[in-house]
Design goal:
Number of domains: 1
CATH architecture: Alpha-Beta Barrel
Strand content: 5-15%
Largest sheet: 8 strands, parallel
Helix content: 25-40%
Shape: globular
Number of strands: 8
Length: about 260
């Protein structure tokens, strides 16, 4: 991580876990286990059903509120969808876009991801855009080619004045929920490549400003090594974000001098 240019972001993705009634106890434990850190922002991306309760629990600004998905549409007859304006009205700041589970199970494509990026930016949300390859694609030597395409597709049409609002998360699909983790070197190589792609699109100054997270099974044991890499600016944390002690350890690793 490079604190000179970018704030570190530790974002928990609770996925479809916990109940709204669990939020208060979780926040109280986190508050007792961590300290406020000026260069690290903590985010919880909670299920939609939790957002109102979570905002009340996060009211002191210690934790920023995130959502796990949004509609590509602003409004209309789209039963079950949630718009960016709805999320902003609930004081949501971040939203995950294009998570591999959305792509795998719900048919999201690079085209819909791009539309959702614009929907987020149009409503002043910060999209956390997920990109990543499968084990087979890595073995075929296609990682950089695939990541380049995903990043370029997600950012298509995003103007320079909005790129600072964007967060990218590299989440190798082969490491999500498997217990496997990219080595610090592997993660750094891909994150550095992502920054190079952004540099090619927007120039070096803006590329330095975009936070790039790692999202493949970061946990309390490997966080410090991963976060020591110059182009890993935080983590998108899955299972470990559900356990206050583990999540707080990752936050504290991000706050090391």
């Amino acid at each position: 991580m490079n604190r000179k240019y970018r704030k570190v972001i530790i974002a928990g993705n609770w996925k479809m876990n916990t109940k709204p009634s669990d939020v208060k106890a979780f926040v109280e434990k986190i508050r007792d286990l961590t300290v406020r850190c000026k260069w690290c922002e903590t985010v919880i991306c909670a299920p939609f059903s939790h957002l109102t309760v979570a905002y009340r629990a996060f009211w002191n600004g210690r934790i920023s509120l995130g959502a796990q998905n949004l509609s590509q549409y602003a409004s209309g007859a789209y039963t079950g969808e949630v718009s960016g304006e709805m999320l902003r009205d609930l004081n949501v700041k971040y939203v995950i876009v294009g998570h591999s589970e959305r792509r795998q199970y719900f048919g999201e494509t690079d085209i819909t991801v791009n539309k959702k990026v614009h929907a987020a930016l149009d409503t002043d949300l910060r999209p956390i855009i997920c990109v990543g390859e499968t084990a087979e694609q890595r073995e075929m030597g296609l990682t950089e080619e695939l990541i380049s395409y995903q990043v370029r597709a997600a950012l298509a049409g995003v103007p320079e004045e909005r790129i600072r609002r964007v967060v990218i998360a590299y989440e190798p699909i082969w490491a999500i929920g498997t217990g496997n983790t990219a080595t610090a070197q592997q993660a750094q190589e891909v994150n550095r490549h992502i920054r190079a792609v952004i540099r090619g699109l927007y120039g070096a100054r803006l590329a330095r400003a975009v936070p790039i997270l790692y999202g493949g099974s970061m946990n309390e044991s490997n966080a410090e090594e991963l976060l020591a890499q110059p182009d890993i600016d935080g983590g998108l944390i899955g299972g470990a974000s559900l356990v206050p002690e583990k999540f707080s350890s990752i936050i504290m690793a991000a706050c090391q001098e």
